[in-house]
Design goal:
CATH topology of one domain: Peroxisomal Thiolase, Chain A, domain 1
Radius of gyration: 19 Å
Order of helices and strands: EHEHEHEHHHHEEEEHEHHHHEE
Bound molecules: coenzyme A
Shape: globular
CATH class of one domain: Alpha Beta
Largest sheet: 9 strands, mixed
CATH architecture of one domain: 3-Layer(aba) Sandwich
Number of strands: 11
Strand order of the largest sheet: 3-2-4-7-1-8-11-10-9
Helix content: 25-40%
Number of helices: 12
Strand content: 15-25%
Length: 384
Amino acid sequence: MREVWVLGAASNRFGKMAETAREAATRVSWEAIHQAGIDPKAIGHTFVANCFGVADHQAHLGPLINQGLGIPEVPSVTLESACSSSSAALHEAFVHVAGGFADAALVVGVERLSTIDTLQATSYFAIAADYPFETKNGATFPGLYATLASAYRAAFRTTPEMFGAIAVKNHANAARNPHAHFQKEITMETYLASPVIASPLRLYDCCPFSDGAAAVVVAAKESVRSPVTEPLVVRASARAGAVTDMHDRTDLLGLPSTRRAAELAFRQAHLTPREIDFAEVHDCFTIAEALALEDLGFYPKGTAAQASLDGATARDGTLPVNPSGGLKAKGHPIGATGAAQVVEIFEQVNGLARGREVPRTGTALAHNVGATGGSCSVHIFGRR
Ligand SMILES: CC(C)(COP(=O)(O)OP(=O)(O)OC[C@H]1O[C@@H](n2cnc3c(N)ncnc32)[C@H](O)[C@@H]1OP(=O)(O)O)[C@@H](O)C(=O)NCCC(=O)NCCS
């Protein structure tokens, strides 16, 4: 396998986009290519992540994006893996470049759902669960993650403040991130007073519905003469799956796909969790951040929420987690989320994360989950 580098990564501000998905995806792709310092014609393949093009009246985005970039002859494909779509796209780009099928590839994720209301968006997202068994019986993502939160709270006798600490931290980080949907801090009091969405989850336990676009340019090390940025070396690109339905699981205290993808990724990278300097993890709900930190091997079962309350995952803690603000506060435009995690890591490494810097940037991990864990990606990045 050839060594693969991330040469450029760009994102717009998440929230409500005036542009169409196609326009936003093309613009962030230009920005990432420009940042990478390569000619668009060097791109050998484009991987587009988009789940609900139907809400924006545009499917088959790849050729349109390539057309806008002046490379209509380049092959493209659109990938859907629910909330992990653009990390799945990154994995495919990695495989193509590492395997020698392309010297450089573009990954771009985009979602635009602000054209529909919360009820409709909730119904759209819910079809990423098992439709006949879960969705048709009324399950929604806040409801499904509330089930995981209830199981965790009962097993480990946690307090609401432990989850509030995750929300407060991620909002504080997002307040320093110009790409974030919510650029406002919240207090523990605000968290505790916020309305219940799906018990025990409150408003500030939930990610919002966001529009957004993010792009990443990867290239084979051997094809890069003199990089104009500090590249991220892709030390691991791993994907795993697991049983989708909650009722068919034997354990609700973690996500098996995260455990499998993490095991593969750490093996590929020849690293252990203790050697990771900071992480962007999938915190669609605060319970998801706690589960991720335990399944990834950073904390023993039942202890991650307490670690957040102790400040261990803050930017100046022992393991900074979600310095971008995470899905919780930076936002969660599902097709763009995985690529946006890489944007944050790229900005941290390249000194572009002003005001929210983490102290050490030698190794970083990105963790992105599809739905309630039917699919999962773990990427580990290092420096030259
Ligand atoms: C939590 C949720 C139900 C709130 O939706 P809503 O009640 O329609 O909220 P609105 O859009 O009317 O916004 C009301 C206010 O709350 C804020 N808000 C909305 N969602 C928020 C969130 N998740 N976190 C913080 N603030 C939020 C809005 O900015 C708005 O603030 P304002 O009054 O100051 O302008 C919705 O964001 C949601 O379902 N989130 C989960 C999305 C999801 O399931 N994603 C997939 C994950 S796997």
